Amino acid sequence: MAPKQRMAVANKQFSKNVTQRGNVPKGNKATESKLPTSQWLIGLFIFVVCGSAIFEVIRYIKA
């Protein structure tokens, strides 16, 4: 595809963005709001960290 043709296609594709003024998405791809890890994995991590902290406090109090 010639450079002029590419520019014409891009202009046509993004011409609707001119009238949106500030509501233009940053990219063409739909953004997914999925977390990279599952919720149960985050819960397990918090349980392990908080649990070990509690055991350390108890151990410190006893000693």
Automatic annotation (TrEMBL):
One of its GO terms (biological process) is endoplasmic reticulum unfolded protein response. One of its GO terms (cellular component) is endoplasmic reticulum membrane. It holds the Pfam family RAMP4. It is a single-pass membrane protein. Residues 12-22 have a biased composition (Polar residues). It is found in: Endoplasmic reticulum membrane. The chain crosses the membrane at residues 40-61. It comes from the Eukaryota. Residues 1-31 are annotated as: Disordered. Keywords: Endoplasmic reticulum, Membrane, Transmembrane, Transmembrane helix. Interacts with SEC61B, SEC61A1 and the SEC61 complex. Interacts with CANX. Interacts with target proteins during their translocation into the lumen of the endoplasmic reticulum. Protects unfolded target proteins against degradation during ER stress. May facilitate glycosylation of target proteins after termination of ER stress. May modulate the use of N-glycosylation sites on target proteins. PANTHER family: STRESS ASSOCIATED ENDOPLASMIC RETICULUM PROTEIN SERP1/RAMP4 (PTHR15601), STRESS-ASSOCIATED ENDOPLASMIC RETICULUM PROTEIN (PTHR15601:SF1). Belongs to the RAMP4 family. This is Stress-associated endoplasmic reticulum protein.
